[in-house]
Amino acid sequence: MNDYLGSSYLIWGVFPYVALTLFFVVPFIRMVYRPFGMSTRASGIFLGRDILGLATHLLHWGIFLVFFGHLAGLIGGILGWGTWVGAFFWMATLGGLAAITGSIIALARRVQVPEMRAMSQPDDYAVHGFLIAILGIAIYQALVHKIWGVSFTAAPWFASLWRLSPQPELMASAPLLTKLHVLLAFAFAAYFPFTKLIHAWTLPVNYLVRPYQVLRTAAKKFQNGWVLGCWEFKGVTDKSYMTYLAGGVLVVLGLIGLILPGPSMDGLVQEAQATTMTAVRSDAARSRPVLDGYPLYVSQCARCHGLEGQGDGPGAKSPTFTAVPRDLTTGHFQFISTNNGVASDADLRHVVVNGLEGSGMPGFSRLSERQVDSLIETVNFLWKDRPVPGERIQIPPRPATTPAMIAQGKQEYASQCTVCHGASGAGDGVLTKLRTDAAGHVIPPRNLRTEPLKGGSSPTQLYYRIAAGMPRAKDEWLMPHYANLGSERIWAIIAYLEQDILPPGQVANR
Fold first, then answer.
1. Torsion of CA 174, 178, 184, 185, to 10 degrees
2. Gap between the Cα atoms of 207 and 182, Å rounded
3. In whole angstroms, what separates CA 477 from the centre of its chain?
4. What is the reported pTM?
5. Could you tell me whether strands 231-232 and 470-473 are parallel, antiparallel, or unpaired per DSSP bridges?
6. What is the pLDDT of residues 85-97, one digit of tens each?
7. 8 A C-beta contact, residue 216 and residue 39
8. How far apart are CA 6 and CA 290, in angstroms?
9. What is the distance of C-alpha 272 from the center of its chain?
């Protein structure tokens, strides 16, 4: 795949390993060479003590809630457990609000109290900068964009790292802010062991009952129980605490990545594997293990279309979408190329690979053909009583564009299209509020002058939209089909649209 050669693989397939290596290895190096540096340094505990106490409690307990929320989201995202993903949203959001509040208070105290400024070091500010940025992006997405369920996407990708078979293509469809959030989190993990936060690695197991302040001394330096003369495993020093904590984290993540099965839903995967998906999954020539079939659907599609394809995913009502996610079980697909209004596998492939521009549905061009095939098979499986698509409309070669053709196209547009799209193409025709899709949502005519064409604006896609129309339901149409016009008149309309209606640069090769 091209991802292995490009920046995508470096970002999502290499950088995480670099960050995780630094996160887990550097603390042990520091413990060997600078054991007394494994502390928080002086915090000016008597300077603004009340404010410090509030900030500390909010920050620490908020981070604990965020951590366990992400753990729930990781497990739920891998297994397709919607309730766990919902728990992740509430735990991470509430914990994030508490943690970011505590971080802001602590940063303000550090800036405003002269004595704190004097004892502060650059990493004291950098740590808060990372925390505020990481938490702020996530909270903004959760409360403003309402992009819920992204753990369905991120969890399988994260698990692929622990399977030592990274799949960067799984993150390609994630929203931009989600990508930034994850990248900042890994960058913070890489920076973490070089800061005063290193003390977290020596967190005693008796944390809740230990003294408020712990001073590290050399008193236990020569205790029995050392292995190879350099380490201790009896649980009495910082080294053993760090060893067991790091080992525990690695074991938990290893279990998540290597042992937990893929998503399941009442036998759907097993039944699908036994029928339509078997051929896709049994391709022995594809040696690199990849996520495909229903688990891939959960990873890439369930956050919007839902685990059962009913268009009710946790992020389905995000205000960032200009169209509600499609109910895949009904199969009311609008961007078709057949003569009977039923989407073919080729039509599904076009939408999956390219997305629907301006709607909120991303394209999945980074997925392999095998993975795209498996998604199409999954959609066909979810599509109840899937009808047989008609023949694909044949597109004859395009004639050369001439002024006469453009003039003819203008006349055809005036007689066929203005009732919906308006005389200027601004979507202000007389039927602007009369059209609804099969679910009852009002579908206004496209403003051809300013709005992107969801299905693509290449000559091929324009031809299909005119000749095949856009179905609403069986034998019903959002946009009528005009195949009866003949290819000459259709090409004339396209020539006029490209010349006078569509914005410059709109025409593409999709």
1. -90
2. 29
3. 33
4. 0.85
5. unpaired
6. 999 999 999 999 9
7. yes
8. 18
9. 25
